[in-house]
Each structure stands twice: as C-alpha cells, then as structure tokens.
Specification:
Helices cover 42% and strands 18% of the residues. It contains eleven helices and eleven strands. The protein has helices at 15-22, 27-36, 53-71, 78-88, 110-121, 135-148, 175-193, 196-205, 236-243, 270-278, 298-311, and strands at residues 5-11, 39-43, 46-52, 97-99, 104-106, 124-128, 154-159, 208-212, 224-228, 251-256, 284-288.
C-alpha cells in the first residue's frame, strides 16, 4: 500500500441492515467507491475500505450513518449514499427531518440542514441557488409539516406565471388551465408528501392554494405558510408587494436562482433587489446553495458546475455561501 493510504475494516452485527446498506447487487457499495475513489471489499459481515486516509475515513463515517438508518428499517436509496458521503466530509450537523403523511424527508447536505433550521427559526427565509438543490421541495415539505402540526392553517404556493409580466391571456382555456403548467412543480411536491385525495380535498377547501403571483395583490396572508418560487423572475414592485403580504402567525419562504433570470433585457430582478435591501437583517434567514448541494441526477451537478465555471461564479472553496 502506498504512503498516505490506509485500510479500515468495519463489522456490522445486523445482517439484515447490512444488506440494506450494500444495496441490490452491491449498488450502494459501488456508489461509495465511485464517489470517494476507494475500494470496498466484503467478507461475511465485514466491509474493508482501502485508499487515501481522508477518503477512507469519510467512507467509514458514511457507512456508519447508513447502517444506523438501515437498522431502523429505513430503505436506502442512491441519494442517501450521496448524502451520507456529503455529510461525512463536512461540518457535523444535527439530523433534521420533516415528517409528512407519505414520507420522512431528511437533509442531504449541510446546507439543506441549515435551510431547514432557518425555516424553523425565522418567519421570512430566502433560499438561493441552482436547480436541483431542494430549495422548493424542502420549503413545501416544511409547509406541509407545519400544516399537519396545526402550526399554520393554510398553505399558499405561488410563482410568477410565464414571466414577470404574467401575460397569460393568450393561452387557451380558463384561468386554471392557463396557469397550471407553470405551477406544476409545486403540485408535484404536494403529491409527493400527501395522498392525492387529501391534496385535492385541501385544494377544494381553500386550505391549500397554488396560484400565480398576480393573485396575491391586495391580500394579507395570516396563519399561513407562504412560498414564492422562481422569485428571480419578479420585478422589484412585485417582490415588495409579495413581502408586504406577510400577516400574523405566518411564515414566508422566497426561493430563486439569480443566475436564471428570464426578465426582459435591462429589467431588474425583484429577488436581487430584495437581497440588496434586506441583506444583513438578523430577523431574516438567508441560505445559499451551490453546485455541491445538488441532489438530482449526477449530471445536473456537472451541468451546474460547468455553467458556473463559464460564468466565473464557481465556488472552489470547501465551504458554502450563507
């Protein structure tokens, strides 16, 4: 073995849990090897990791975390292996989990954990960063969780329809037909967390509302969890209008990616403007994701990283922006 390399063996008593860690045809171990560029050999109930010292250490920590979850009967997916590796290489963070009717959702990166904690601690939170980092999904999960706990009475999910000008009149159908395609990702998140019949019941009763930003004008949103998605495509006037809807006993989460602005050339983004105006206010939570936090397909991470490199915004440090 070369200098700087090591070999570490982990023993696991619960064979059933160990099989969950290994995955079908050893796919989870293959993934661990791929992510850390180490070797993992299995013999009986023992796994031996070999490779560079730091990577083997991260691999051992990741295996321990996966085994702990498997021993509780949790099914492990490919994304859980990725998350375990991320968390093993970063600053230790508390396990933050959100319970919904259909699943328990856990942070898959330290920044996701920070984001969940921010939404617990602050009435207003900004979640910023590229696609695939879980900004909207986790916000909807937190909203559903708080609704089920009766901490809020309503969920209101909104985003600019089509563009900041919201010129949707030319599309066929009634108003719901016109805006639903632009709100579909938010519906998808709801259906991922609650049974379909319950989602429909809550939508019909008005407890859940999925609506374009234009529908927020003139309202005060009390006892509600309110999410504005794709906020980079608001104008400063629209953003101020939305922020000032916040009422008593409400939470508001603003998500967006300032590198993906679809406004007309020269128009200022309401999200950028709000960050300039509100940055530094201790009563507001700000969480910034990077390509390191992408939890979609591996290729999405590579795509985001390539664009960041081209645009000169690639974060090459070991930390995350906050």
């Amino acid at each position: 073995m070369n200098d700087g390399e090591t070999r570490v063996t982990r023993s696991f008593e619960d064979n059933g849990a160990l099989q969950l860690v290994i995955g079908a045809a050893g796919e989870n171990l293959d993934r661990l090897e791929e992510l850390l560029d180490i070797k993992v050999a299995m013999r009986g109930n023992r796994l031996t990791l070999s490779g560079p010292v730091d990577r083997v250490g991260h691999g051992g920590d990741a295996l321990d975390a996966l085994y702990t979850r498997a021993a509780k009967g949790e099914v492990l997916e490919r994304g859980d292996v990725d998350a375990a590796v991320r968390l093993s290489g970063g600053t230790p963070v508390p396990v933050v989990a959100i319970k919904t009717r259909k699943r328990e959702i856990k942070a898959r990166s330290p920044v996701q954990a920070q984001y969940l904690q921010a939404m617990e601690a602050h009435e207003l939170v900004f979640g910023l960063g590229p696609a695939g980092t879980g900004k909207t999904y986790l916000a909807v999960a937190m909203a559903v969780s708080m609704f089920l706990q009766r901490r809020v009475e309503r969920l209101i999910l909104s985003r600019p329809a089509v563009e900041a000008g919201e010129r949707i009149g030319f599309l066929p159908g009634d108003i719901r037909d016109k805006v639903d395609p632009y709100l579909r990702p938010m519906y998808d998140a709801l259906y991922d967390m609650l049974p379909g019949d319950e989602v429909m019941k809550r939508l019909e009763s008005g407890e859940f509302e999925v609506a374009p930003l234009a529908f927020m004008r003139g309202r005060t949103l009390s006892n509600a969890f309110v999410i504005l998605d794709e906020a980079q495509n608001t104008t400063p006037t629209q953003m101020k209008m939305f922020l000032t809807r916040l009422g008593e006993n409400s939470r508001m989460v603003i998500t967006g990616d300032v590198s993906q602005i679809d406004l007309p050339m020269g128009a200022k983004s309401g999200l950028k403007d709000a960050l300039d105006v509100l940055n530094g206010d201790p009563a507001i939570g700000f969480t910034t994701f990077t390509h390191k936090d992408v939890v979609r397909h591996d290729l999405v991470t590579r795509i985001v990283r390539a664009y960041d490199r081209r645009d000169g915004t690639l974060d090459t440090s070991n930390g995350h922006g906050h």
